[in-house]
Amino acid sequence: MKKHLSFKLASLLMMLCMLLSSGVVSAYALDTPSDKAAGTINIVTAESCKGVTLSLYEVGTYSYTTSEVTLNDQFKDCKLETNKLTEAKTTKAAAAALSDYAFDHYYEGKDVRIDDKGNAVFTGLDTDHKVYLVAQTSDFHFATVTPVLVVLPYRYEGAAEFVNNVSVTAKFVDDMDKYYKGALIVHKVDDKDAVLEGAEFRLERKIYYTTAPDDIDLYDQGSDEDGDFYWYIIVDGLVTNAKGQAAVKNLPFLSYRLVETKAPDGYIMDSEPHEFTIDNYAEIQLKDETYAVTEGEAVTMKVVNTPETSEPSEPSTPDSSTPESDGSSSEVSVPESSVTPSTPEKSTPEVSKPETSVPQSSTPGIFTFTGDEIGKYIIIGAIVLVSLAVVILLFVITGKKNKKK
Asked: Is the entire prediction scored with pTM above 0.90?
């Protein structure tokens, strides 16, 4: 009997060892992860968020047994319920509250800019039950990316083990996709308002900062009443189409500037940056190579190019318009004078009216005489001379008669 009981105990111990080695009771081990290797958090957003700076803050530690967060000294005064962070709704609210708290107290985190693929990667992170907040608390006047809380190490839902490298998709703020995005439509024309194809632009976003990025020298920078800023390129190689248009949509409500980088062939490049602000929601659509606003109010901008060589002046215009002129008058370009050559002949039958016998020349201000007119004046002169001779003769005869008496 004792021998039989001993055999049963040995069998139970063997089964327990097999269960432990198979991982069936490994839940306890999962609740107390022991891997302290450095971790990474990759925040996945959209390409339109390129250039946005996200900040990483260590806010506390997490208990895998009680699902409660213990805030560190920096965030301990934040009024936050930390014992109900297992639901997505409460976790989202907690992340928003912690983000506002960090922003209000000007906390500086570990900053990483979102790259052109929409990713921001934080590396070399402590994985000892740490709770991290990733939030956009700088650069813009309002949040563009929804803040998130991440625990390292992390166990995905349904997974069998913890991981130190986490990828999280960060969504936009509620209604951001519709109500906080605008559009820009560029119209490229020449100085006569004709459309120009092939002009190239880049679009830059104005980013304010408190701590200068390491590569700040790569960007045009400055300062204004709102603080220090630099211009970050978000779209490069924006080219006008056959209708002289180019457009960018899904632009957050921020400050921008448009810079021409290449003018159409034969035109002078516009070197003046054009600053503008997106503050209205807009949807645009391209149809038949023409951009049109389908909803809201887009920013439209006309950019003018002038030709490389100006149009020549017209010094030869007077010569070309008067080839028949002999150069005798400064007013020969008056067309009426060249179409009325027969006008003087109307005065020929009116010989008895000397006051009308001198016709007006076809060239204003200058008198000319024909052969008939010269003969007429000779006859008149002869009559006058004969009359004078008769008068003198009468005076002589009269004088002689008076002497005889």
From this structure: no
